[in-house]
Amino acid sequence: xxxxxxxxxxxxxxxxxxxxxxxxxxxxxxxxxxxxxxxxxxxxxxxxxxxxxxxxxxxxxxxxxxxxxxxxxxxxxxxxxxxxxxxxxxxxxxxxxxxxxxxxxxxxxxxxxxxxxxxxxxxxxxxxxxxxxxxxxxxxxxxxxxxxxxxxxxxxxxxxxxxxxxxxxxxxxxxxxxxxxxxxxxxxxxxxxxxxxxxxxxxxxxxxxxxxxxxxxxxxxxxxxxxxxx
Length: 230
What we know:
Layout: H1 10-22, H2 25-28, H3 35-51, H4 57-63, H5 69-81, E1 85-87, E2 94-97, E3 100-101, E4 108-112, E5 118-120, H6 124-134, E6 137-143, E7 150-156, E8 159-164, E9 169-173, H7 184-187, E10 189-191, H8 194-204, E11 209-213, H9 214-225
Antiparallel strand pairs: 1-2, 2-3, 4-5, 4-6, 6-7, 7-8, 9-10, 9-11
Helix pairs in contact: 1-9, 3-5, 6-9
């Protein structure tokens, strides 16, 4: 197969703008966060692939000993309010720190960078955004959301150099409610073919969203995550 590059089409730009209207992307990009909130966000995101999981709240507090526990709790609640992270119901654990998941998902990303390893991402587009976020090569292991067939992706120098099956597509769901972790992320998935997406859609009837070719989903991953750490 020929290498697949992220394709900046008018359609993908419009989908990105539509997604930004659904989610509070200004906060996710750090534009509306305080310097302290941005520092904590950056720590969580950069430590996650090192640990192979999202840091615990205790680990975050130990890294920021200059803050009293009450201040750190307030910062984490603000990040949760902005949907930069998603706290569990008891606010004791970080269930999601986009693009990373605090629990097992269908999407495993291996970062090919010294000191980094494997970690679960929240959705298919999150997985495709990791190489842009960390400026490194990655491999993605996922599965078709309809039939469970294995999906393998290798990304080198920000190009998809291996894809199996080559007919893989992505459903970009835009039915947002409460937060991305409990709505969008569960439904943004890889499918082994357009036919398998159509079969899945017959039973699930997702209305608000777009079926993407992989070069389009790859570009959205770039837009969502390239500047996430800045």
